[in-house]
Amino acid sequence: MNSCNYTTMSHSQSASSGISGFLSLLPEIQTSELFLAVSIFITIHSLRQGKRQGLAVWPVVGMLPSLLLGIRNDMYEWVTGVLDRQGGTFTFRGPWFTNLHCVVTADPRNLEHLLKTKFSSFPKGEYFRGTVRDLLGDGIFSADDETWRKQRKTASLEFHSAEFRAMTARSLVELVHSRLLPVLEAAHDGRAQIDLQDVLLRLTFDNVCMIAFGIDPGCLHPGLPEIPFAKAFEDATEATIIRFITPTAMWKALRYLDLGSERWLRRSLKRVDEFAYDVIRTRKKELSLESGDKNSTERTDLLTVFTRLKDEDGRAFSDKFLRDVCVNFILAGRDTSSVALAWFFWLLDKHPEVEEKILGEINTIVKERGSRNGGEGAEGEELVFRPEEVKKMEYLQAALSEALRLYPSVPVDHKEVVEDEVFPDGTALKKGTKVVYAIFSMGRMESIWGKDCRDYKPERWLKDGRFMSESAYKFTAFNGGPRLCLGKDFAYYQMKFVAASILRRYHVRVAEGHPVVPKMALTMYMKYGLKVTLCRRDEM
Ligand code: HEM
């Protein structure tokens, strides 16, 4: 109700009832004026506060308008700009009644505090777990405390065992030489453009399923077929992510009513579970048949390892728990190395001098092998890199790390604080606050990497020609502290093996005019893939 309504109504009153009518309207006038005054006060107050925060804070919707304006072009760059101006940390005030309030930081001191020093005060938290529970259950990725610790310990022993290393090296030789290179060769022969990101995603999905389940779903085959399990897994992940941008009460209502994205999630999870439980049942049968057999299977995949273990009461783990273990590892290891490789090949296309140096390193390693073998195997087409040779590729490791610094596969990550805390930079955190650490922005901070922070320079990782790793709180692509990525060593081995095997045979040329931009997702995919053509080195 505004003053215009008041005028109209007062004219319609008769003279005798004028005074009493006016008096009867008084409460309404006061209400509308009060409402107007409060609105003006809140707006002025919010705008003044906004100046202090660096972003306007609006009544009810908080900083949402600034965020929406900022992400029209590139959300990562927008967040980086705000962090830069705010000295590395800012508090985002989301709309009332949403889950969007959080503290965003890119300050290495805060990262060390939350990932290591005060690790137990910054768990994944109930909000995260509740949102991803249908997909991830009690698996390592969402668990905290004892549930997490036990899985971490068992999986860590496994990941560092010689058998596991041998199995992963074998699986890569098989995937790269029998599947990846023939697919690339077919694209080369047909002079066709190929989406390298898609090919690499297929490769790492097959590879991580071999590690987790001990089976190969066969995504990377000529013709690039659609594999129902891979499709269901992707759909289930995407539908779960939608929950993060939907008010909790709303997605819960949709789930209850079996509508929209929740229906899509239920259906895709059903297919994921059918596949997983089928593999689990078959494996249990296989292992029970061979129990007592000295020549039992040499399987070293995670499912076999966890199936053979017993819980603290001496009982076998439930099928549901085994399903959660495998699904979490597939999620953790399926896309991260492939998107990192896609950004790496794109960067090489823009930096031929880096490609030259990588080739120089590979050729030296191949020549060394040749001189040891009296020339044999040095230039053979079917050259397969050995683990000790991959280890020697230090410049390649630097070039991959540099790609991950600028394009981290996990661009942002988050924690929830369980008690009142103060960050080393002075930011006060109330119990329950969500903390987002902006890994993407950290790679682009002058305060961390110097004036050339935006340049692609593998040399920054080398000292006297040897690769030097960086503090995990500065280079956070693999997380840090007790929850450091468990697959880090494997991921480097995998990326180096794949990159060297491709680069030795082909020059990868990004298709002219192909747009390369990041997709807004929890993993840093290229929004339109990476369309490339291939030129064989021996034809150049
Ligand atoms: C370039 C490749 C990779 C990158 C950049 C990467 C990055 C990360 C990051 C940032 C986290 C922390 C996630 C969080 O806690 O929210 C993480 C955790 C994890 N990663 Fe990786 N990852 C890569 C490859 C892999 C691979 C290939 C595997 C397995 C085969 C793997 C297994 C895991 C596991 C199991 C965790 C959970 C660790 C825990 O919570 O204790 N990662 N990774």
Automatic annotation (TrEMBL):
An example Gene Ontology molecular-function term: iron ion binding
Binding site for heme: C485
Cofactor(s) needed by this chain: heme
Location within or outside the cell: Membrane
One annotated GO biological process: lipid metabolic process
This protein's record includes keyword Transmembrane: yes
Keyword vocabulary terms for this entry: Heme, Iron, Membrane, Metal-binding, Monooxygenase, Oxidoreductase, Transmembrane, Transmembrane helix
Pfam families noted in UniProt: p450
Membrane topology term: Single-pass membrane protein
InterPro entries: Cyt_P450, Cyt_P450_CS, Cyt_P450_E_grp-I, Cyt_P450_sf
The keyword Iron is annotated on this UniProt entry: yes
Source superkingdom: Eukaryota
Cellular component aspect of the GO annotation: membrane
Family: Belongs to the cytochrome P450 family.
Name the record gives this protein: Cytochrome P450
Source organism (scientific name): Musa troglodytarum (fe'i banana)
Lineage: Eukaryota, Viridiplantae, Streptophyta, Embryophyta, Tracheophyta
